[in-house]
């Protein structure tokens, strides 16, 4: 089970989306299995607790691609793409399902 790190007070974050993998979409999608793409929005205390950095690190470890960013509503929104089993693993690890 992956646990989300808890950090100090909320700070303003850049609005530019983060690329989750340097290898690119083609490298992550080079599987013969079914592919999956999931859009998500996370509510609660998710800004200022390193959620975006945690998500980026986990995506690299698991082998999926996508993006994640803070919103003006105080939530975090993003998209994760890749082989179905890896996307499901990413969602479970990040507490999104």
Automatic annotation (TrEMBL):
The keyword Transmembrane helix is assigned to this record: no
Catalytic activity field: an acyl phosphate + H2O = a carboxylate + phosphate + H(+)
Stretches that traverse the bilayer: none
EC number: 3.6.1.7
Pfam families xrefs: Acylphosphatase
Keyword Amino-acid biosynthesis: no
Molecular-function GO term, any one: acylphosphatase activity
SUPFAM superfamilies listed in its UniProt record: Acylphosphatase/BLUF domain-like
Catalytic residues in the record: 52, 70
Enzyme class, first EC level, given as a word: hydrolase
Protein name: Acylphosphatase
Organism: Rhinopithecus roxellana
Gene that this sequence comes from: ACYP2
